C-alpha cells in the first residue's frame, strides 16, 4: 500500500513530527532517524516520507526514491565513520521477515561485525 500518509502509522507520525525522534538527516522525500532500540553501535532507520507499507509494495516508479535512500545511507555511513569497515542495510518484510512497523524502512547498521545469514 502506498499513500501520502496513513492515520495511526507510527512512522507517518514521526515524519509529521507528531512524535519525537532523533533525526540524522532528511531531504524532501526521505527521513533518517536513530533507532530507538539500537542493535549495533550505529543503527539508523531510513524511510520514505510518504507511506509505503513494505518493500513488497515498491514499483519501478520508486526507483528514484530508492536511489535517494541508498545514497543517503552511504552518506550517513561515511559521516558516522563506519563506511571503511563495512556495514549492513536491510529491510524486513512481513511477519516472518521480522517487520514490526508497517511503514517501509531500511536499517543501516554498523560499528560491529554481523553474522550471515541473519537469525
Ligand atoms: P522492523 O522490526 O519493522 O524491521 O523495524 C522497526 C524498528 O523500529 C525497530 O528496530 C525498532 O527498534 C524501531 N522503532 C520502534 N518504535 C520506534 C520509535 O518510536 N522511534 C524510533 N526511532 N524507532 C522505533
Ligand atoms: Zn506510514
Describe the protein in words:
There is one protein chain. The protein has 119 residues and is an alpha+beta fold. It has one domain: HIT-like (HIT family, subunit A, 2-Layer Sandwich). The protein is 24% helix and 24% strand. The strands form two sheets. A five-stranded antiparallel beta sheet has the order 2-3-4-7-6, with helices on one face. A two-stranded antiparallel sheet has the order 1-5. Strand 2 and strand 3 form a beta hairpin. The longest helix has 18 residues. It is globular and about 40 Å long. The mean pLDDT is 97. Bound molecules: guanosine-5'-monophosphate and zinc ion. The site of zinc ion has 6 residues, from helix 1. Guanosine-5'-monophosphate binds next to strand 3.
Would you identify the regions where 5 or more consecutive residues have pLDDT less than 50? none
Helix content: 10-25%
Number of individual domains: 1
| Total of helices | 3
Q: Layout of SSEs?
A:
Elements: E1 2-3, H1 10-15, E2 23-26, E3 30-34, E4 42-48, E5 51-52, H2 63-80, E6 87-90, H3 94-97, E7 106-110
Antiparallel strand pairs: 1-5, 2-3, 3-4, 4-7, 6-7
Bound molecules: guanosine-5'-monophosphate (5GP) and zinc ion.
Amino acid at each position: 500500500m502506498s499513500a501520502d500518509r496513513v492515520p495511526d502509522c507510527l512512522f507517518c507520525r514521526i515524519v509529521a513530527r507528531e512524535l519525537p525522534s532523533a533525526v540524522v538527516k532528511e531531504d524532501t522525500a526521505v527521513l533518517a532517524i536513530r533507532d530507538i532500540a539500537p542493535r549495533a553501535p550505529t543503527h539508523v532507520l531510513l524511510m520514505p516520507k510518504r507511506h509505503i507499507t513494505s518493500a513488497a509494495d515498491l514499483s519501478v516508479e520508486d526507483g528514484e526514491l530508492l536511489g535517494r535512500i541508498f545514497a543517503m545511507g552511504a552518506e550517513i555511513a561515511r559521516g558516522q565513520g563506519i563506511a571503511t569497515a563495512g556495514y549492513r542495510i536491510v529491510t524486513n518484510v512481513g511477519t516472518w521477515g521480522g517487520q514490526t512497523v508497517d511503514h517501509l524502512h531500511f536499517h543501516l547498521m554498523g560499528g560491529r561485525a554481523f553474522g550471515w545469514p541473519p537469525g
